[in-house]
Amino acid sequence: MQVTKEGDYALRAVIYLSMAEPRTCAAREVSEEQNVPPKFLARIMPKLVKKGIIVSLPGSKGGYRLARPAREINFLEVLEAIEGPLRLNVCLGEDLSDCAHESICGMQRVWKSAQDKVTDYFSHVTFDKLTEPPCKMSSGKSSLCNVFYPVCSRARH
User: Which end of the chain has fewer CB atoms surrounding its CB within 10 Å, N or C?
Assistant: First the structure.
């Protein structure tokens, strides 16, 4: 399993909006701050809006913000909003006819166990846990914090 660029960019966008919460951010700002190509972001954001993860506010001062508090949004729902249901192997899909080895295969339980662990883990990683820069969490405020996490200085004022 590998997360696509689109999935990675969606996670970055939601992390950024979480750090900026409750401020509304223009798409261009999210794109520039997270190094997400604008064309990718233009495809991603409507999917996140449709799934109720973010909201889009129209107008010259519009943009995007979280639809719910960061503590209520998890890694799995963002990934699945972009990638669809998480499947480590075809035999874990809804249609087992995709697996020619179903009747003789002993691997399904291994794949199922691994998938359950991954989905459980991702469902417990909420975006409020991802908003604190590592430098702030480990040793107080660092001068490098604002270099690596420039949104922190803007969002917290």
Answer: C
